[in-house]
Amino acid sequence: MSRKLISDPVIVLERVSRVFDRRCVVDGISLAVGRGSGFGLLGANGAGKSTTLKMIYGSLRPSAGRILVNGMDVVRQPRQVKRQLGIVPQDDLLDGDLGVYDNLLFHARYAGISGRNAHHRAQQLLESMELDPYADQLIGQLSSGLRRRLVLARALLGAPSILVLDEPTRGLDRDSRQLYLEKLRQLKKEGLTLLVATHLAEELEAVCDRAAIMDQGRLVESGSFAEICKLAVRHNIPMGEGRAAPC
Question: Cβ neighbours of residue 11 under 8 Å, at least 6 residues apart?
Answer without folding.
Answer: 31, 32, 33, 39, 56, 67, 68, 69, 162, 193, 195
